[in-house]
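Service request form, structural biology core

Requester: graduate student, group of Dr. S.
Request type: structure prediction, single chain
Budget code: on file
Notes: please return the result as structure tokens.

Sequence provided:
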Amino acid sequence: MRIACFLLVFALLIQGCKDKNTNSAVGVDELSDRDINISYEAVSLQDTTQVALQNVTIKDPTYKAIIEKELVLFYKKYNYQTRWLYANDASPLFHRYIQALDSLSSYGFFPQNYRQKELSEEVTSLYKGKDSLFLRKLESADKNITASFLLLSHHLTHGRIPKVGDETRIWKRNRPLLDNVELLLKLQDNDNLSQIIEALQPQQPFYKNMAIRYKELEKDTAISFTPFAITDLKKFAIGYRDSTIVALRNQLEQKGFRSEVQKEPQEVDSLLIVAVKQFQQSIGLSADGIPGKTTLNYLLMTPKKERDLLLLNMERLRWQNKDLGEDYILVNIPEYVLRLFHKDSLIFSTRVVVGNPQTPTPIFSDSLHYVEFRPTWSVPQSIIQKEMIPNIISSGDSLKYAKRGYKLYENNKEIDPSQVNWKEEGIKKRVFYFVEDPSERNSLGLVKFILYNNMSIYLHDTPSKALFERTQRAYSHGCVRVQSPDKFAHYLLNRSKGDWTYEKVREAMNKGRNQYRVRPKQHFVIDISYLTAWVDENGRLIIKNDPYLFDDEQLKILKKYENL
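Core staff response, request fulfilled:
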């Protein structure tokens, strides 16, 4: 039942992605089709030099240079006129902008980052008493409002964390839906700015539920409770007695994992261990039934930490904000699940194994290129150098991989591994290629799903089926292993070509020709994402483990904005 709930929750998430682009596409298209807004009330700037235009206050030093460049470009395209402030009063658009900043606080934005209070007070003071410096003050205020808006727009469409991931943990963000300068150029005074800003954000109910819970948790951050640790974890088993066991039971019950007491509340029993396992499974930890440090970190998570996780994951949703089309595939790494959708309806789902923390799966968007039955596997050089050659040397068996169906190549010629002196000095400087023949034992299994990226990341079958039964499933070298690849291939190809029955897929996998490639007629987008917290349709907060340790690292950067 819990798994079915998660499937429904994530179905709503992806349905929202489509809803977002259906709703916002009208607004974005309308803005794109507009001419540049012309206001007859605008005031011409007196000093149009780059130095003068860039003489503004920008509270985010990370993006200061970018915003200054966009600001100069904006005024150049706007014929060096004021956008927000006129000779006799501020434009309606300015007042709507100040109001819109209030509503954005529900989504984890901080109005002070955009100088909401200062700008409001500055404009009010400007029109109260005009003096000889009025025009100069008006120009200065208008430029500061423009800088504020461009910064907000940049945060909305590009995000607030300048660098996501590193050389090992690759994270590629999607391109924004609309250019910031173009957006401001085409806004009109009578536009509902709040609705336009809302349309630029992810529109899924999932995202909005997160915002509601985020605001609720802001009120609860003062709530505190006494943390605890099991006195002697090594003895934690049926029959172990300790006063902290009562606290463990209570905390599990608060999280929705109640266990009936079989003997005494302070004594460990089989039902308590089951409850601990169920909690561990719910967040993607190895379900060993032992309430160790990591388990208790999640079990004792404070409202403030929960709020921070929602803040971060709302930010992540904005990074992947894009049109997924009619046919799309979603893999959420912390959840270890793949889902296939057609017109926002969930067609198929299956468990996956993703990259281990040393060789993590990249987070990115791509498209399906083709399906290949009975594939060979050309082993990446990183695996050859770091694993295969050392294994041959340590085992003393030069035929170690030949016995498993691998052929060895050097200088584009097949060679006999028994004729290689694997212990010779400089053996790792030679460039070998290991190619595994198609078979049920092939590391890629009997079918793989090729994408367009240049990182050699794809989805595939695997002979190691036992790993799918584990709660924590980060074991691959980076590619995504699919538990039910035959069903996945059937749904992909039968929807596309119509004659690919499940039986035909199984025959291609087991009896078909080697490296048989089939290109779907439909365009399938695949989004590999990384969400560790969200809120379901019932308002329940779902939290998953952080296998690649992104959460604390990214939160450290994002939290700086609270006091910017």
